[in-house]
Amino acid sequence: MNFSCPLFLTACALPWLAGCTAVSPAEQSARARVQAVGAQLRPDDQTPPLPELRPDAPLPVFLRFALLNHPQVEAAYFDWRAAVAAIAPARALPDPKLTFEADITNMLMTLMPGLMFDFMAAGKRDAMAREFAAASEVAHRRYVTTVLQTAAAVKISWADLTALEETLRLRRAALVTLGQAREFAHAAHLTAHAMGTLDALAKLENDAGRVRLEIANLEDQRGVFRAAFKSALGLARTVPDPAWPAQFTPSPALGLTDDAFWTAASAANPRLGEMRAMVEMAVAQIAVAEKIRTPDFALGGMVDLKADPLMWRPQATLTLPIWREKIAATIRAAHDRRAAAGARFRAEELMVAADLARMTFMVREADRMVAYLDTVAGPSLRRSRATVEAAYQTGMSGFAMIPETQLMILAMQTERVAALREREKTLAELSLLVAGQPPAGAPLDAPAAAVLSLHP
Fold first, then answer.
1. Rounded to a whole number, what is the distance in angstroms from the first to the last CA of the chain?
2. Residues forming a β-bridge with 116
3. Cα–Cα distance between 153 and 229 in angstroms, integer?
4. How far apart are CA 120 and CA 2, in angstroms?
5. How many CA atoms lie within 13 A of 120 on its CB side?
6. Tell me: the pLDDT tens digits for 378-423?
7. CATH number of the domain at 3-430, out of 1.20.1600.10, 1.20.1250.10, 3.30.43.10, 1.10.10.10?
8. Which helix (H) or strand (E) holds 109?
9. Helical H segments across 269-396, by residue range
10. What is the dihedral of CA 399, 400, 406, 412, to 10 degrees?
11. Which long-range contacts (CB under 8 A, 24 or more apart) does 333-340 make?
12. pTM score
């Protein structure tokens, strides 16, 4: 509905105007939610104090640093806040307009100013407010998804970097062991002058060269992983490097069945949440489209300041929504968007189910490998080393078996680190599917619960 009124009616209209712009509970909830997150993420639109990063800091400290500092999270937050702010203009009345009309021949005959207010039926504005409220929920879910993606990037980079340091330690230990074996083989060759000892010496030198090559590649790869970790923390290349994490700490066992994971994912997955919000937005768009049948009209008047006595000119207009094809097409398009949103939601459910099955299998596979190395292969090799050392002390075996057994133990430990590294990266990807409780002080609202607590 459009309404036009002269200046003297403005004071009478203002109370009615205020009564037509009530804030809905959905808008109140959206405002409270974005303000609660903003108080932690950007208090007074400023970056809050960041946690101190130390080499021995646990992973949640690095996660909190990234969530507070990363521009990707900041951009998603401001997009969300802008979507919440857009609800008020959608339900508000249009701005008033000053009007002016004059009749002029050889002189000014009439001077007719006025003030026009455009009104829309309350049902239309309520439907538009619901549509924009649903759009703000979509933006909120995208913010949660961004938080999860940022946290996952930190976890993956953390696993790569800390596992690399552990692998370097093990390969350097292997190089030391090979050096000891080479010295013994060289001494044996000098004393025995046997062809077999020369062959063993050549093999050890070749193995040591290969390990040195691996170490060189790992040290070079460290720069790549550090750059990725620095980027995941939201730090530009030009700023000083942070303290690099030094300790590789595996996450505990999952302790959940596939059905429990699916229940959690279907309820808390941010992508599914975004799809649900898009369905709700499409439903609200249907309500807006159906209001196209409602006619708009304008009522008002103007006053001639030149006339004596004053002359009033009332005005009235009415829109006629008579084009049935246009109305039907608008409503049909809204229903089609609703059907498409529902189909996308079901398609996303299928992808989540498949990804969840794949990732939980990969975690269990890694757990079984680590359990095998810890309970079977590791104890067996350590017993073999003890036996070889005892045999050497009694003169029943040569020294060469000792470093050979030690190298096998170090290789097994390297394989264990590799399995744990892949497990941690899979858990990071799993955090994109299932949302748990966030780290203490993370810039998240309680319903978002956006960072999976799969790490102590």
1. 59
2. 4, 97
3. 8
4. 6
5. 19
6. 898 888 888 877 777 776 666 667 888 888 999 999 999 999 999 9
7. 1.20.1600.10
8. strand 108-117
9. 270-290, 324-372, 378-393
10. -160
11. 333/289, 334/282, 334/285, 334/286, 334/288, 334/289, 334/290, 335/286, 337/282, 337/285, 338/279, 338/282, 338/283, 338/285, 338/286, 340/282
12. 0.79
What is the phi/psi pair of residue 218, to 5°? Answer: -65, -40
Say how many residues make up the chain: 456
* Rounded Cα distance, 306 and 309, in Å: 9
What residue type is 153 in one-letter code? A
The SS3 assignment for 310 reads coil
Domain borders along the chain are: 3-430
* Structure tokens given for 5: 């009124």
Question: Which is nearest to 25 in space by CA: 129, 138, 125, 142?
Answer: 129
Cis peptide bond upstream of 321, omega within 30: no
> Which token pair is 314?
């009332």
**Closest listed residue to residue 272, CA positions, set 361, 357, 355:** 355
Annotate 400-452 with DSSP letters as a single string: THHHHHHHHHHHHHHHHHHHHHHHHHHHHHHTTT---PPPTT-S--TTT--S-
Kindly report, residue by residue over 325-339, the tens digit of the pLDDT: 888 898 898 889 889
Question: Contact, 4 vs 117, CB < 8 A?
Answer: yes
Q: pLDDT, tens digit, for every residue of 289-330?
A: 888 787 777 777 788 777 777 778 777 777 788 888 888 898
User: Which strand (E) or helix (H) includes residue 100?
Assistant: strand 97-104
Order of all β-strands in the sheet with 97-104:
3-5, 108-117, 97-104
Helices (H), strands (E): how many in the chain?
Answer: 12, 5
Q: How far is residue 285's CA from residue 270's CA, in Å, rounded to a whole number?
A: 22
